[in-house]
Amino acid sequence: MKHEGAAAAGLHGFVAAVLRLVRTTAFRLALLYLAMFVLSVGLILGVVYRTTAGFLEQEIGETIALEVAGLQDHYRNYGLPGLVDVVRTRSAVANNNSIYLLTTAAGVILAGNLSGWPAAVPNASGWTHFKVADYGGVTDRPSTAQAVTFTLPGQFRLLVGRDMSEIDQLRTRMFRSLGWILGATALLGLGGGLLMSRGAMRRIEAINRTTRQIMSGDLSDRVPRFGGGDEMDRLAGNLNAMLDRIERLMTGMKQVTDSVAHDLRTPLTRLRSRIELALLHETEDPEVYRSVLQDTIVEADRLLATFTALLSIAEAESGAKRQDFVPVDLAEVVELAADLYEPVADERGQRLSVDIRGKPVVNGNGQLLAQVVSNLLDNAIKYTPDGGSITLVLDGPAPGRAACIEVADSGPGIPPDMRDKVLQRFVRLDTARASPGNGLGLSLVDAVATLHGAKLELSDSEPGLKVSLVFPPEARR
């Protein structure tokens, strides 16, 4: 009983696997290709038949027609006795495929090699196809004949034809071969479809297995690639790139949550402490309350700035702003940002140099691009020591780019191993802890660059940091 149960379970599993294969798109495509291939083979064999058996039948018909014309001329020249002699002579030839029969109007046989007039009715052209004998002819097989009949002057009837058993045999073999070829083609196509479906199912099942792992919470799993470089490998590559992006976003969200909880707790605690101290130390001096309220407003503004930056980054990363893209004059954006921050640089004794080379226009969001340039200038001024220099350069179109914005300073710069980390939210270098800020400036720049398809590059300015925003050629308007 156990063996019977195992056998039944194995059979059930096999049937289920076959049904899954049959329902696959690959198998259906294989069946479609099989139908087209079988149709093509059928057409080819039909052409072969027409060029062999059909050609032979046409040749036989033409030969019979010529022989009939000759017999008619012989009858006109030599009369009935001469025709009888010719028909008897030709009928007596051994191994002759020709069929002759000459009769009177009453059906009396005068000459020929047939025992009687065939019962088959001729067509409109006088041609008839009839069975001569169950076995006979040169092949000793069921013998059929194709002949033409006509009436001579004097109401004599003449039949001239050929034994068609060889042609019938050829036709039978060709139809039998056609059946075997189509059957073999169908079996091979069906087997090939099953093999193709099995291979596709194995690769798709690997994708399904990966997605189930990811849905269970394991974001590190990836779709395996088989190394063939086909469309399935390209699909796996795109899926893995998408999963990498999702993993980065999830990791970034977790970091943002942790950073918000950590970095905002201090200013909120400080804000609450100021208000609590003002309530505990009652005084009639309005300046004390004014000072507390001013400090509270400053802290509130700092918190609002942090949340505004986070919202801007979220909007940029979501791609929602891409629908608002319009042609943006980068020269105008750079000039406005330079005019805004030049007094700030002068106040710290810094020299802000602006170099605008051309007037490139790109497709983008002008407000976000202006915020990017402002963030870069704000960081450069903040981290450049007093008396240092800052350079803002706008370069026009060049091979491989539509435009380039560069901001370079003479500050301490960023170590190469930290340049990717500073693009994350709330990440600040130890040397920047003492300066005001929330660690979101470069994060916003990176998000806006990604939104516009631009490349953000951080490099050495020797000394200092140089930040380049390179717009792709397709961004040009």
UniProtKB/TrEMBL annotation:
<dbReference type="InterPro" id="IPR003661">
    <property type="entry name" value="HisK_dim/P_dom"/>
</dbReference>
<dbReference type="Pfam" id="PF00672">
    <property type="entry name" value="HAMP"/>
</dbReference>
<feature type="transmembrane region" description="Helical">
    <location>
        <begin position="178"/>
        <end position="196"/>
    </location>
</feature>
<feature type="transmembrane region" description="Helical">
    <location>
        <begin position="99"/>
        <end position="120"/>
    </location>
</feature>
<dbReference type="InterPro" id="IPR050428">
    <property type="entry name" value="TCS_sensor_his_kinase"/>
</dbReference>
<keyword id="KW-0597">Phosphoprotein</keyword>
<keyword id="KW-0418">Kinase</keyword>
<keyword id="KW-1133">Transmembrane helix</keyword>
<dbReference type="InterPro" id="IPR005467">
    <property type="entry name" value="His_kinase_dom"/>
</dbReference>
<feature type="domain" description="HAMP">
    <location>
        <begin position="198"/>
        <end position="251"/>
    </location>
</feature>
<dbReference type="InterPro" id="IPR036890">
    <property type="entry name" value="HATPase_C_sf"/>
</dbReference>
<dbReference type="InterPro" id="IPR003594">
    <property type="entry name" value="HATPase_dom"/>
</dbReference>
<dbReference type="GO" id="GO:0000155">
    <property type="term" value="F:phosphorelay sensor kinase activity"/>
</dbReference>
<dbReference type="InterPro" id="IPR036097">
    <property type="entry name" value="HisK_dim/P_sf"/>
</dbReference>
<keyword id="KW-0902">Two-component regulatory system</keyword>
<dbReference type="InterPro" id="IPR004358">
    <property type="entry name" value="Sig_transdc_His_kin-like_C"/>
</dbReference>
<feature type="domain" description="Histidine kinase">
    <location>
        <begin position="259"/>
        <end position="475"/>
    </location>
</feature>
<protein>
    <recommendedName>
        <fullName>histidine kinase</fullName>
        <ecNumber>2.7.13.3</ecNumber>
    </recommendedName>
</protein>
<feature type="transmembrane region" description="Helical">
    <location>
        <begin position="30"/>
        <end position="49"/>
    </location>
</feature>
<dbReference type="Pfam" id="PF00512">
    <property type="entry name" value="HisKA"/>
</dbReference>
<dbReference type="InterPro" id="IPR003660">
    <property type="entry name" value="HAMP_dom"/>
</dbReference>
<keyword id="KW-0812">Transmembrane</keyword>
<keyword id="KW-0808">Transferase</keyword>
<dbReference type="Pfam" id="PF02518">
    <property type="entry name" value="HATPase_c"/>
</dbReference>
<dbReference type="GO" id="GO:0005886">
    <property type="term" value="C:plasma membrane"/>
</dbReference>
<keyword id="KW-0472">Membrane</keyword>
